[in-house]
Design brief:
The chain is an alpha/beta fold. The protein folds into two domains: about 15-55 and about 300-430, Beta Barrel (Lyase, Ornithine Decarboxylase, Chain A, domain 1); about 85-295, Alanine racemase (TIM Barrel, Alpha-Beta Barrel). It contains twelve helices and 20 strands. The protein has helices spanning about 40-45, 55-65, 85-95, 105-110, 130-135, 145-160, 195-205, 230-245, 270-285, 295-300, 330-335, 425-430, and strands at about 25, 30-35, 35, 50-55, 75-80, 95-100, 120, 140-145, 165-170, 210-215, 255, 290, 305-315, 320-325, 340-345, 355-360, 370-375, 385, 410-415, 415-420. Strands 4, 13, 14, 15, 16, 17, 18, 19 and 20 form a nine-stranded mixed sheet that branches. Strands 5-6-7-8-9-10-11-12 form an eight-stranded parallel barrel. A three-stranded antiparallel sheet has the order 1-2-3. Helix 2 (about 55-65) runs parallel beside helix 9 and helix 8 runs parallel beside helix 9 (about 270-285).
Length: about 425
Amino acid sequence: MKPARAHSRPIRSESDPTRYTPNFSYREGELFCEEVPVSAIATQVGTPVYVYSRASIENAYRRMRAAFADLPHTICYSVKANSNLSILRTFARLGSSFDIVSGGELERLNCAGVPGRRIVFSGVGKTRDEIREALRARILLFNVESEAELELLLSEASRLGRVAPAALRINPDIEAGGHPHISTGRHHHKFGMEWSVARELYLAARNKRSISWQGISAHIGSQILSLVPFRRSAQRMARHVRELAKHGIRLRYFDFGGGLGVRYDAEQPPDWNAYGRAIARIVKPLGCRLLLEPGRSLVGPAGVLLSRVIYTKTTNGKEFIVLDAAMNDLLRPALYGATHPITAATQPSAPREKISADIVGPICESGDSFIQDWPIGKPEPGELFVIWGAGAYGFVLASNYNSRPRPAEVIVEGQRFRTIRRRESRADLVRGE
């Protein structure tokens, strides 16, 4: 795969992500996560290490719940955004339901003690075994994405003597998402089906004994920074709900997916209350319960990746800062050209030389670059850096490329922190081979 070009920008003043990242703050020049200095975590656990604020996750969930307080709704946290068991248990304690896209994610929720009635199963490639496991778990809803999948679901439900609660995922052909790879609602994408096909499937299966039509589903993309595509998608789905009702198919759930964007650098995502009002205005008259599948918007700003400087170097007048973290730890910049601001964990008391540098990792790929031409104080080897906005699609995309052990994960809870995933060892790299 050819890596996406890392984000490049003109020289500008160094940013301060704490202005829009709750529960992280500089105190007397030192960065704290809640009540813990991040340098203490790096010293005890080592680097690279993901650090999450539990308070940030809890507050984000409560704010989203409040934004939809006037409408019957269920928040189904999207497990793929960050699937650490401690994160899942945090959401479970808050009363969240969950959206999964694989049998492995179903098993994670089982390990976290989440009952099937709080699980929605999405995804274009559900296997026979995965469908069977989900039926046995008595999950809340299958979001079916093709006629072939529907046939398989009917077959397995009949064989097990179960009634499958189902919705069809509609592809509304709406442009949305912060990058082509995370836009999912156009007709040329692999997700869902066009309404003309879905309508016939709803009608053809309405009297089948092994299926119960419970809902309709759509998810148009991720990192969406405007309410316009959300409104358009909701309006199209609402028309479909009303059309099905005329044929005697009255749906219980209006599954609207996720996709609300967050601020990484200069983005201006919609206000959650405005988002809630916009969707409620369309959904409330239908009498359906709204299902939401947020991921990034709940955990993205809650995490950072800590990394130490290995070297600085100058090549033909260009400055490079080489970290001990790499694209195998955080893939988003190489995969999407995503911007993650980077700052020093400690602000020096005396001014130091400002440089514009490419901040890179040690992997043998030119694409292993976190950010280009980034303004920052010239660091010393061993200095601790903070890569911001790493709570979503961070560790879950990590790999062992270049035979590098995957990093540790830590959660901060007030004045305490604990390791929620130990750092892999070199023995882990060859286990199973």
